[in-house]
What does this fold into?
Amino acid sequence: MSTLLPGVLLGIFFMVVNYFVYGRRQKKITEPFRLRLFASGVQKAAPKAIVAFIMPVIIFGGVYSGVFTATEAGAVSVFYGLLAGWVIYPLFFKTKADVSLSKTIRNSAVNSAAIALLIASAALVGRMVALGGVTKQLIDFLMAITTSKYVFILVINVIFFIIGMLLETCTSIVLFTPILVPIATAYGIDPVHFGAIMLLNLEIGLITPPFAANLFVACRMSNTTMDEIIKPLLPFYGVCLPVLLIVSYIPAIVLWLPGLTG
It folds into this structure.
């Protein structure tokens, strides 16, 4: 919930860039043809998209209505995913799954085991950090440099942006959250606000070279090279910074929506 408005804000900035930088370069087509083209695309894609859209509705609706817990939501989403992939799409849309069920289960087991190992290792590191007093030492060190939370936020933005370029998001969250949240709290920063800053930086890092994991996925899906995709993205990188600063220094953008839900 805390990152919903920042995500919307980032999307609006991206749409503005897309319109002014690239939208006007497109070949002019007549408005009736544009509408027919849009309607045709929606008509073809909507039924399949609705099936996929139901999954987040089930997850969030079930959790926030109290029908099931967040853990149970994972099991429900897996069941619905199997139902959609192996029954609904083949039966109604004549679309078959690209991989076998056994391979899907095997890949899921490997990924789940890797995450479980990561969480266990992070818990061990967190315990060592707590027993060694590392967090307190970091707080004292940073407080000696600056007592301003605004300077601390700037430093955290730089740190997490670099981390986002080097590490996968889940890994970064599990490893660094237990260490940095107490420090942020010592500076008077709301943990929810800090989490939103962290996530936004990590996601921007995922599309930023040299590693840019998301860009490699985009290149593979669009059959393009990294060199071809970087240059058109430069204007979008330019608007990420103002959005990041707005979210970092105006906590209400992050805290307003969670505050409504209690």
Remarks:
- The two ends are 11 Å apart (CA to CA).
